[in-house]
Amino acid sequence: QTKPLASVLKEVCDAWSLPNAEHYALQYVDGQQTYITESNRGEIKNGSILRLTTSPDQEAERLYSGIQSNNSDVKTDSLKKLAGLSQDVTFAQEFINRNGLKQIFHIVEEGNATGDMLAHTLKAFMELMEHDFVSWETLSATFIKKIVSYVNMNAVDASVQQLSLSILENMVPTSRLLFELVKKEVTLDRLLTHLQVTNAQLQLKAMALLIALLLAATDAERRDMMDYLREKNIRQFIHKNIIHSSEPLGDEMAHYLYVLQSVSLNLCERRMRTSMDPYSQEQRELLQSLRQTAFESESEAPASNFSTERRRSLCAKEFRKLGFMNNSNPAEDLRRAPPGLLALDNMLYFSRHTPNAYSRFVLENSSREDKHECPFARSSIQLTLILCEILHVGEPCSETAQAFYPMFFGQDHFFEELFCICIQLVNKTWKEMRATQEDFDKVLQVVREQITRTLSLKPTSLELFKTRVNALNYSEILKLRQTERLHQEETLAVPVLELRERLKPELLELIRQQRLLHLCEGTLFRKISSRRRQDKLWYCRLSPNHKVLHYGDVEEGVHSPPIETLPEKIPVADMKVLLVGKECPHTKEKSSGKQNKDVLELAFSIVYDMEEYCLNFVAPTRYEFCLWTDGLNVLLGKEMTSERTQTDLDVLLSMELKLRLLDLENITIPDTPPPVPKPPSNLNFCYDFSQAEQ
């Protein structure tokens, strides 16, 4: 490592009597087969096997002429080799410097290449563009039209269509111009056709492009696109053919469904942030229609004979029965945003789509004694706000989350239908709690708990949600709270606290062992670039003797690859520090605001080898983040600091304590130990065995 790379190459070439040492380079035999350069030579580990090969500039020169060959076999082979080598940054730079991309454009624009030759060309193009040497905006219109035509034509290889969809997906976020071009040329109908194929990879790439288009669109465009997709029944298709298909759902597809759900729910944001305008005739009429639907049968006949004053006081009385706080001017209640006009929309939806339930709710409460009536309007406004918070309406999409609700895709008008179930739940819980107006906040708190506890069970349909949330009545919530409180009180007695402290070291050791075992099993990580959510995966696992971390790139669908297949390694002895969140080098590079908040929460890095190098991770979930950071801290001889350690320790301690205290059920444990009695004055009560034996 002390000599310049050129002199090392010269020595090797001389040993094998090879002239022109500058035409050669060293390259890794395993893994990605990267070329060794002055900038990356420090990463060579002891035990790495290198081979002598043609230098990147010679290779680039050879392939540059190879892809121009008239012999189609030579051309296809050259393109195949080019697709493989283009992952290497040194080679890519050499090839691009020779104007190689122009040649690739020429092959595509000419339109003679098909099948394998075309697939290799597009793959090489993708890999070369991945290095960000060239801007996507430099692509010619002819080239883009050609790529679009592969997506739009039917008789094209699936591999070519997949690559074309990927290229367009990469293109969309880079500039407004390219977004508009792709949106115009690749219709939503065409993407929906691709979604309906049986080839899972093609389906995934079509979904990726659809999501990229939705995320790059303006609010108005996004609304139009979502309306069109709704017309085309994309929701029913996803529910039937993707969520409930025989194949398990991959992480990538789960993420896209999460984004689609998030984008759909965020369409409510505009109404949620708009206050009611008391001077808007249209909005006032909507409010009046709420009142009329509830009380029309009582007031329709005589109302016309009343004076204006009398009519106004009648309206005010009816608005008070509807549960508005400000009954003379109910619009005031809807001035608060959020939930703004979204609350009015929900009330109207409930009154129009379930008129019987609406009338029952209002009439039942208007005939109760004053202090026990459940105010419909006030409850609706607060419930809408609670639902917006639980469903994260108006929050930006996370880059990594995969948590979508399967029932979301099982239902049109999901938000409104969920509201209809929950507003009836409010009335039911109100009665169970025998609440008065003063208990309003308490009731809504219980309702929030009922909704979140039921949603955490991931019900597959709204019907199932309704059954479960209604089964979780107030007495059930009280029981759950009581159990949690009792458990807390029981574990706060002084002797119990002392026992906890004594048990802690043993249980922490158990957690350490579990963390290390998890590291030995390994985890699949994603590479996330600044431009998009990548589909490149890599795997990392700890050797069974806890001495070495092995890692390497893997293909989609590979689960727990054997250690031998992971080429890269870091000895645990060389690991120096664990960095998390903002301290990591890969989060500093691209701190571009809101969408990286979730990446910050999942990022960690290991600094190794004299603190020169870093291995950067972005965990797939918060759970994996906690297990990995704990495990690495154990390897570094430090304390486990994640929140998961605390919850695991609490669970284990509570189980262990329950087992130990089983015999003491219903016995109150005193805070101070009872006094030890004095020893007896004589011990004559002892039985003398020696006498009996004689």
UniProtKB/TrEMBL annotation:
Q: Which keywords label this protein?
A: Apoptosis, Phagocytosis, SH3-binding
Query: Is this entry keyworded Phosphoprotein?
Result: no
Q: Which Pfam families match?
A: ELMO_ARM, ELMO_CED12, PH_12
Decide whether keyword Ribosomal protein is in the record: no
Q: ELMO domain: from which residue to which, for each copy?
A: 282-455
Q: Which GO terms describe its biological process?
A: actin filament organization; apoptotic process; cell motility; phagocytosis
Q: Name one GO molecular function term.
A: SH3 domain binding
The record's section on InterPro entries has:
ARM-like, ARM-type_fold, ELMO_ARM, ELMO_dom, ELMO_domain-containing, PH-like_dom_sf, PH_domain
Q: What does this protein do?
A: Involved in cytoskeletal rearrangements required for phagocytosis of apoptotic cells and cell motility. Acts in association with DOCK1 and CRK. Was initially proposed to be required in complex with DOCK1 to activate Rac Rho small GTPases. May enhance the guanine nucleotide exchange factor (GEF) activity of DOCK1.
Name the PANTHER family on file: ENGULFMENT AND CELL MOTILITY, ENGULFMENT AND CELL MOTILITY PROTEIN 3
Stated name of the protein: ELMO3 protein
UniProt organism field: Psophia crepitans
